[in-house]
Amino acid sequence: MNIVHDNVMKVFFQKHPVDLDELTAIKMIHKKIESAEKKCKEGDSSYLDDLAKSYEMTEDYFSELDVNPASLL
Amino acid sequence: MAPFKQSGSSKYREYMNQLIHKIHQAEEMLLSGDDRHLEELKEIMQMIEQYTNEAKGHKFEPMQYQNVQGNPQGQQAFFDNRYTDYPEYPQMPNRGRDIRGHIGYVPYYPPYYPFFNEGGSGGTRGESRQGYNNEYRTR
After folding, report:
1. Which of B20, B27, B55 faces A27 most closely, judged by CB atoms?
2. Which residues contact A46 (CB under 8 A, 6 or more apart)?
3. Are residues B21 and A21 in contact, defined by beta-carbon separation less than 8 angstroms?
4. CB neighbours (10 Å) of residue B44?
5. Tens of pLDDT, residues A38-72
6. What ipTM score was computed for the predicted complex, to two decimals?
7. In this structure, what DSSP letter does residue B85 have?
8. Contact B33/A3 with Cβ under 8 angstroms?
9. Sheet strands (E) in B46-126
């Protein structure tokens, strides 16, 4: 069953906020981690930059939901 | 020296696989309406911190705190607003060029110059500079 997620969030993926639904936001984080994985396999040390970016994207995601990740079990 | 070129390279690839697996799980949980996807995301953040610490051999810091104009102390330490009133552009690309590469912009023009907006002085001061300043202030 497909659940429609219409919860639009503003996420800072570049310098400017973008309106995204939750699933798209997570997919973009996924894409960034995949890019890091690819670079890691190729021996490109900038994979760490991609990881840092995905970390920031996840932080944005949490702040948009107004959830403190430290409060989660 | 990149850490993956050392003997433990397969370890980092394994880490990346774990991350991919984790984010995939988070996606599936969100799709099935399970709120625990947030916990997965939290774990992803922790894993990224841990892996980066290991790979770099020092404490993880997100990109926004790194390498601003080559300053390891980060943006706040680099940016000194005593000499400019353009706080939205703390990283000036090149002296003499504005953020879009236009030549002639003087990043550190002193805002306390007493006849700054008076005009009439010609040259690079007075009204001829005003367009630049207005442009940046209204952003």
Report:
1. B27
2. A39
3. no
4. 25
5. 888 888 878 888 888 888 888 888 888 888 877 77
6. 0.78
7. S
8. yes
9. 96-97, 103-105
Q: Which two tokens stand for residue A56?
A: 């920031």
Yes or no: say if B30 and A22 are a contact pair by the CB < 8 Å rule. Answer: yes
Which residue, among B60, B66, B31, has the nearest Cα to B48 in the 3D structure? B60
- Give me the half-sphere count of Cα atoms (radius 13 Å) on the Cβ side of residue A73: 2
B49/A61 CB distance under 8 A: no
CA distances from A45 to A50, A64, B56 (A): 10, 30, 10
Q: A71 and chain B: CB distance < 8 Å anywhere?
A: no
Contacts of A23 in chain B (CB under 8 A): 27, 30-31
Dist. CA B139–CA B132, nearest whole Å: 12
Residues of A in contact with B16 (CB under 8 A): 33, 36-37, 40-41, 47
Structure tokens at B128: 């001829």
Residues 6+ apart with CB under 8 A from A6: A21
Entry pTM: 0.54
CA distance between the termini of chain B: 41
